[in-house]
Design brief:
With about 270 residues, the protein is of the alpha+beta class. Helices cover about 30% and strands about 20% of the residues.
């Protein structure tokens, strides 16, 4: 697609990345004279109604959500039978890449990132969307210290049902909540659980639960208790492990429902 003009407006400049069901291109918007990112569904999926609906859900979500911590979407359309989403072009690295380089973060940095993620989720939850795939790979870190949450590809409205996990199905099994893994009804708390996993990982440099396969990992919160993350944090202080471990509680009733519940105690770190 390099060099092609999409719908008479978006000139493809180069490939910027590729995911499971979509390719991302850097493009120039001739109408607004700005650089944008085009997320285009792959040819293998463009005729499968299931994947097209999933892509459409993501477009609906990102076009409706307006928050400084969520990647901004400008347009949605089709070209050569392939759906695409036009989004802001973000320069930076993913939280996953950052953690791979740093191993673990100081408390101030980790909490600052977590607060921005919670702010993005509060916006999504207030609009009725559950992200359901909150993980470091979907968080972009920018040079100015801001973050951008991406990939609402499996986001659903609060009333929708989730899918059951299998050993083949999920690459983010370490971050999904036990109820999501079991195929049970999910709500905002499943995203809060995922933030708890990431906060734990940022503070300790390791994941709270592990196992031999996707199902084993998903069942771990019911049988294992994660080590206090503060024991290996760079600037361990008493109490640093309370909030991530509370968010990791298996019982949905024990997890906070939105940023208002979770973010305030983070300031005490």
């Amino acid at each position: 697609m390099i060099g092609e003009l999409i719908n008479g407006r978006y000139r493809i400049e180069c490939e910027a990345g590729s995911g499971g069901m979509a390719d991302v291109y850097k493009a120039h918007d001739l109408k607004t004279d700005r650089t944008v990112a085009l997320k285009v569904i792959k040819k293998d999926y463009c005729r499968d109604p299931k994947y097209v609906r999933r892509f459409e859900r993501e477009a609906q979500a990102v076009l409706s959500l307006k928050n400084a911590n969520i990647v901004r979407a400008y347009d949605y359309g089709t070209y050569d039978s392939r759906s695409f989403i036009v989004m802001e072009f973000v320069k930076g690295c993913t939280l996953k890449e950052y953690l791979s380089a740093k191993k673990k973060l100081d408390v101030k940095t980790a909490v600052g990132i977590a607060e921005k993620i919670l702010d993005a989720l509060e916006c999504a939850h207030n609009a009725g969307y559950i992200h359901r795939d909150v993980k470091p790979q979907n968080i972009m870190l920018l040079a100015d210290g801001s973050i951008k949450m991406m990939d609402f590809g499996i986001a659903r409205f609060s009333r929708a049902q989730s899918q059951t996990v299998s050993d083949k199905a999920i690459g983010s099994v370490h971050y999904i909540s036990p109820e999501q893994a079991k195929g049970e009804r999910t709500d905002a708390r499943t995203d809060i659980y995922s933030v708890g996993v990431m906060l734990y990982e940022m503070l300790s440099g390791r994941l709270p639960f592990d196992g031999d396969g996707a199902v084993s990992i998903a069942e771990a919160p019911g049988r294992d208790c994660p080590q206090h993350p503060g024991r290996s944090a760079p600037d361990h202080r008493k109490g640093n492990g309370k909030r991530p471990r509370q968010a990791l509680s298996e019982c949905p009733g024990n997890a906070g429902c939105h940023r208002g519940v979770q973010a305030q105690p983070l300031h005490s770190f």
